[in-house]
Amino acid sequence: MIPLCLATAKEIGLITMNNKWDMRFGHLASVVAGWSKDPSTQVGAVIARPNKTIASVGYNGFPAKMEDRPEWYANRDEKLSRIIHAEHNALNHCEHENVTGSTIYVYPLRPCIKCVRKIWDRGITRVVTVTTKEKNDYMLQPEVWERYGLGEAELYLDNMMIRHETIIILD
Ligand SMILES: [Zn+2]
C-alpha cells in the first residue's frame, strides 16, 4: 500500500482543498484499504456524515459468508465473480441509516459506474477520491469511460448529479 503523506498531497477538483477533515477521512480510507484480503487491489471507503462523524467503512472483498480463499483471489475470473467493491460494502454497512448529504471517501481508485449509481441513489452527493497520479491517469483513460458510453464530466458532474468530486493526488 502506498503511504499517504498528508504534507505532500496536492488537490485538483471543484472545491478548494483546505478542509482538514477531507485529509483525515481520506487517510482513514487508505488505512481501511489495507484490511482487504485481495493481494493485488486494495480499496477502502469511508462514509462521513455532514457532522464529521463516521457512518460506515468498507473495503473490497468477498461476501461476508463466503470463505476468503487465496486461490480465488489469485484467479482473476474467480475473484471478479465474487468481489464486492469497497464503496458497495460501506453502503451496505449503513443500509438502515439515511446518509443523505454525507461524503464518501475512496482510496486509491475512483468509484466505478455501478458504485456511483448506488452512491447517488443513497443521497450521497460528494465523492472524494484519494489517489496517485499513476492510478488517476489510468482511470481517466477515455476508452475506460467509453465502455460506459459516458464522458468523465458527464459521469461525475452532471448526469449522475454528484455535485462535487474532489480528487486528491499524492506525490
Ligand atoms: Zn465499484
Question: How would you describe what is shown here?
Answer:
The protein has 171 residues and is α/β, with parallel strands linked by helices. The chain has a single domain, classed as Cytidine Deaminase, domain 2 (3-Layer(aba) Sandwich), CATH 3.40.140.10. Helix content is 35%, strand content 20%. The chain contains 8 helices and 6 strands; from the N terminus they run βαββαααβαβαααβ. The chain has a 6-stranded mixed β-sheet. A hairpin with a 5-residue loop joins β2 and β3. The longest helix is centred in the N-terminal third of the chain and has 14 residues. The protein is globular. Bound molecules: zinc ion. Zinc ion binds next to α5.
How is the secondary structure organized here?
Elements: E1 10-13, H1 20-33, E2 44-48, E3 54-59, H2 70-74, H3 76-80, H4 86-93, E4 103-107, H5 113-121, E5 126-132, H6 133-139, H7 142-146, H8 152-158, E6 164-170
Parallel strand pairs: 4-5, 5-6
Antiparallel strand pairs: 1-6, 2-3, 2-4
The structure holds zinc ion (ZN).
Keywords:
single chain; 171 residues; alpha/beta; Cytidine Deaminase, domain 2; 6-stranded mixed beta sheet; 8 helices; 35% helix; 20% strand; globular; disordered N terminus; binds zinc ion
Unreliable runs: 1-18, 144-163
Number of strands: 6
**Helix/strand/pairing category:** alpha/beta
Coarse shape = globular
Bound molecules: zinc ion
Termini separation comes to 14 Å
The biggest sheet, with number of strands, parallel, antiparallel or mixed sense and barrel status, is: 6 strands, mixed
Element order, helices and strands? EHEEHHHEHEHHHE
